Amino acid sequence: MAYLRKRLLHLIPVFFLVTFASFTLVNLLPGDVVDAILADDQAANDPELRRQIKADLGLDKPLLVRYVVWLGDLSQGDLGRSYITGKKIGDLLVQRIPVTLQLMVMSLVFALLLAVPLGILSGYRSNRAIDRWISGGAFGIVAIPPFVTAILFIWVFAVLLDLLPAAGHAPMFFGVWQNLKYFILPMLAIGLSEVPIFLRVLRVDMITTLQEDYIALARAKGLSTPYILFRHALRPSLFTLVTVLGLQVGRLISGLVIVENVFALPGIGKLLIDAIDARDVLVVQAIVTFSAIAYVVINLTVDVLYAILDPRVSQRPGMA
Fold first, then answer.
1. Distance separating alpha carbons of residues 53 and 51, to the nearest angstrom
2. Distance CA 225, CA 219 (A)
3. Which among 232, 252, 9 is positioned nearest to 107, based on CA atoms?
4. pLDDT over 70 (residue 280)
5. Which candidate, 268, 274, 240, 238, places its Cα nearest to that of 255?
6. Can you tell me the distance from the alpha carbon of 41 to that of 187, in angstroms, rounded to the nearest whole number?
7. Which of 56, 92, 179, 266 is least crowded, fewest Cβ atoms below 10 Å from its Cβ?
8. What is the mean pLDDT of residues 145-168?
9. Among candidates 274, 277, 272, 276, which has minimal Cα distance to 257?
10. DSSP symbols for 134-157
11. Residue 291's pLDDT band (cuts 50, 70, 90)
């Protein structure tokens, strides 16, 4: 418990730094939310009207005061209302987060299902033909950005073959297949970009683990190769993979923003782009806050998994 408390205390400053930085940067962007509100209004150039709207929205207060007020509201579970639509931001997030989480989970599961067996095989057959083929394919995938892969998949599977929809979304109550078919292409685009990273990390650790004395002892006992790989070698080799998996969540969230817009998926990525275009500061801040909290929770989960995979972690000097 002391270990977890200390790790949590280390992550709290990260939350405040990220939220304050995002709040400041969004407010420094050129343009004004009042311009978006009065975009089609003939009175858009009326200085008095603009001042009144800013006062009503609290935008006439200093930046630091607005941030403190926002933190106070957040502590009470109030994310505010969208400047543009007037809807509760909490309701907007509740509608959009499930789509993003579904895409993220599906992409990570797909990436791990592909990367783990390939990483084990590549580590076991290191510096042989199969290892070179797998490594070459991984480097080729790394060279292609996810949005390029997404466009390529749309062209092949949606346009040429007409097997899957190019864009859109169907809620789960329309049917499982109706829902999943809209996620397959974005899942492949995101998941494939993660496979090389997971694969290479696991390969390196597997090579190191397979050189340990206890692996040689297991072989001397006549244990089968699959049993040695999955029972004795895999768990010690997962330590770095767990680390990278946690760190990749931040990168994955940023990647989802682009892919969600390419496939017109109504997740928080698309909501974020729309909010930035409209200078809807509170919506942008809410999404950044959600991402920061998610990142903090993921990192804390990684620390817990460290202790599970290797109990010595929580007993090291400075960790207790």
1. 6
2. 8
3. 252
4. yes
5. 268
6. 41
7. 56
8. 89
9. 272
10. HHHHHHHHHTS-HHHHHHHHIIII
11. confident
CA distance 272 to 266: 10
Tokens found for residue 161: 């073959």
Distant-in-sequence contacts of 61-65, Cβ < 8 A, 24+ apart: 63/23, 63/24, 63/27
Q: pLDDT digit string (tens) for 294-312?
A: 777 777 777 777 666 666 5
Number of CB atoms found within 10 A of residue 132's CB: 13
Cα separation, 211 vs 218, in Å, equals: 12
CA triplet 57, 60, 64: central angle to 5 degrees? 100
Contacts of 80 (CB under 8 A, 6+ apart): 70, 73, 88, 89, 282, 286
Q: What angle do CA 274, 280, 286 make, to 5 degrees?
A: 90
| Residue in this structure with the two tokens 């949606």, named with its chain if needed | 158
Six-digit token string for 250: 């931040």
- Three-state DSSP at 304 gives helix
Q: Which residues pair with 81 in a beta bridge?
A: 88
The predicted structure's pLDDT at residue 317:
47
Residue 64 is encoded by which pair of tokens?
A: 């630091």
d(CA 84, CA 93): 15
Closest CA to 281 of 59, 55, 47: 59
Q: By three-state DSSP, how is residue 265 classified?
A: coil
